[in-house]
Fold this sequence. Notes:
This protein is of the alpha/beta class and 274 residues long. The protein has helices at 7-28, 33-38, 40-50, 74-83, 124-137, 156-167, 188-191, 197-203, 216-223, 261-270, and strands at residues 65-68, 144-149, 173-179, 182-183, 186-187, 207-212, 233-238.
Amino acid sequence: xxxxxxxxxxxxxxxxxxxxxxxxxxxxxxxxxxxxxxxxxxxxxxxxxxxxxxxxxxxxxxxxxxxxxxxxxxxxxxxxxxxxxxxxxxxxxxxxxxxxxxxxxxxxxxxxxxxxxxxxxxxxxxxxxxxxxxxxxxxxxxxxxxxxxxxxxxxxxxxxxxxxxxxxxxxxxxxxxxxxxxxxxxxxxxxxxxxxxxxxxxxxxxxxxxxxxxxxxxxxxxxxxxxxxxxxxxxxxxxxxxxxxxxxxxxxxxxxxxxxxxxxxxxxxxxxxx
Length: 274
């Protein structure tokens, strides 16, 4: 694994990825841009600072597994994987086009580094648990990270998995909840009783932390605490939907809106990109 860039460089990488996501949404006329922008820092911290991966051997048995369970934000995963060298960045220009491997929501093994098809919410964590159990049975030391959306925590399958993982003492499993406080049609905390989300995971038997989901150092430190004791790790990452662009931040219209060319240019200027 190459040396990690410093925080300043990682922040620049995050800005460049956000700029690319906005271009991809415009070019492909695809929604879910704000959902992708909210989880960029989680992915950057994981892929540059935490995961034991090698873009040259994406199927290595010893690799850490990262599942983006909120598959509607797959553009963020694609952009991160391309930036990390799993495939050429030029492939991003085909995003959501007919015949492209980079579908709007990921298909199984659609591109190097994509671990799972995650279009339907609530399945990433159960599969991640299976991967963690497999590692134990096969005596492999890889770790499993799963990123969930807060709206995804409405799913019953998530809470069945939440009960199962501590019972199996899966301490090489971590989840990161992208807690941007919105889902498709309303505030997450109004649609369901999500407040005290960290306390809920703690009550289910997980080591739980609540952090700023846009603080790269805090994200890195939190993920590196996996394995402390016998419990799995739950990280509630407080984020802002549409993070990075003032006229998109915390505006749920951008769950489905597609930016026009003028808005792409304005967003890139805000991000400090030429």
